Amino acid sequence: MANLIVISTTAVPDYVRGSLSRFLTEPAPGLYVGSVSARVRDLLWEAVSEAVGDGAAVCVHPADNEQRYIVKTAGRRRRRVMDFDGFQLIEFRDTNGQSAL
């Protein structure tokens, strides 16, 4: 379970989806789940975040912190991950890019 990775993608190029499906299972469109080494996970996320273009992607994987996981995002999204004293919280932005807090 320590190597579980979840990646969700929206509007990414087809070759990115192909790369992800080589290592991970796609139980729903754009949602990839699997168990890979940290090295493979980091290489996959690097490839996804570099190629995301106008799309968006989220990666969740286990980490040695209080929440026991970490969330990474790439691309433009209305939800942003914010660090709050070591906890990752989600900030929701309105359509103008302003924080909705």
From TrEMBL:
InterPro entries: CRISPR-assoc_prot_Cas2_sub (IPR010152). The keyword ATP-binding does not apply. Keywords: Hydrolase. Its EC number is 3.1.-.-. CDD domains: Cas2_I-E. Gene3D superfamilies: 3.30.70.240. It comes from the Bacteria. GO terms for molecular function: hydrolase activity. The keyword Cell cycle does not apply. This is CRISPR-associated endoribonuclease Cas2. It comes from Actinoalloteichus hoggarensis. The lineage of its organism: Bacteria, Bacillati, Actinomycetota, Actinomycetes, Pseudonocardiales.
